[in-house]
Amino acid sequence: MSRYDPSAFPPFAVTVDLVVLTVRDHELCALLVRRGEPPFQGYWALPGGFVRPDEGLAEAASRELAEETGLRAHSAPGHSAAGVHLEQLATYGHPQRDPRMRVVSVAHLVLAPDLPTPRPGGDASSARWAPVGELLGDAPADGVPLAFDHGRILADGVERARSKIEYSSLATAFCPSEFTVGELRRVYEAVWGVVLDPRNFHRKVTGTPGFLLPSGGTTTRQGGRPAQLFTAGGATVLNPPMLRPEA
Fold first, then answer.
1. DSSP result, 95-142
2. CA-CA distance, 117 to 129, in Å (whole number)?
3. pLDDT digit string (tens) for 163-202?
4. DSSP character at residue 42
């Protein structure tokens, strides 16, 4: 170590960016903040910021989410008590991705049910939920321009969510602690952007070992006859998987 010279390497900063997804009014929505400072002042962006010298990446992600939006996530594996799921998504390090200096971003994916209206804070002048379909569009030129490379990060986060609910129980992260099969189906429909056959879906999810557990209760919150309530089972990998219909 005596021969190691840190100054021989160019310095760079590390940030965390957050793809926060929830289902609102039967649509998959992403959390955006409007930047109150340069660069990209006035642009919509993903919440995030610089990692402090004394904190880890998951800790920085949780702090930035709370500071900029008032929302709180937990980095424990699986679901927290509040049902929030937080995981690392990918790392982005193009030399020109930030005009201020060389910045490497470690993006995180946050999934949770029925998240509240966010409040702006930190360097964000406002915050809102926006439908993913409007942000990404059918082609890159159709979407809403976001700050930095956040359009790419958002697209990667959405695809991660879409693919993971095929082979894992992650779709239940968008549901309350007790939910109906119909409510779970609407999560799949919102995330995938498709319409699913109710009977086939019910047969698949209730027939997949460890996916759902009956809670013993029923609800009429959907209208009509009482519907059976379920909780997430212990399975983390679905066998057979819930394959995404082809567009």
1. TTSSSSS-EEEEEEEEE-SSPPPP---TTEEEEEEEEHHHHH-SSGGG
2. 8
3. 999 999 999 999 999 999 999 999 999 999 999 999 999 9
4. T
Residue whose C-alpha is closest to residue 110's, from 73, 77, 80 = 73
Residue carrying the six token digits 């698949």: 204
CA contacts within 13 A on the Cβ side of 47: 36
Q: Look up tokens 């956040």; give the residue.
A: 150
d(CA 154, CA 109) in angstroms, rounded, equals: 9
146-167: pLDDT as tens digits? 999 999 999 999 999 999 999 9
**Phi, psi torsion values for 227, nearest 5 degrees:** -110, 140
CA neighbor of 21 nearest in space, from 148, 135, 183: 135
Helix (H) or strand (E) holding 17: strand 13-24
Quick count: other Cβ atoms within 10 Å of Cβ 179?
22
Q: Residues 56, 12: contact at Cβ < 8 Å? A: no
Q: Which two tokens stand for residue 183?
A: 């409510």
Are 196 and 245 spatial neighbours (Cβ–Cβ below 8 Å)? yes
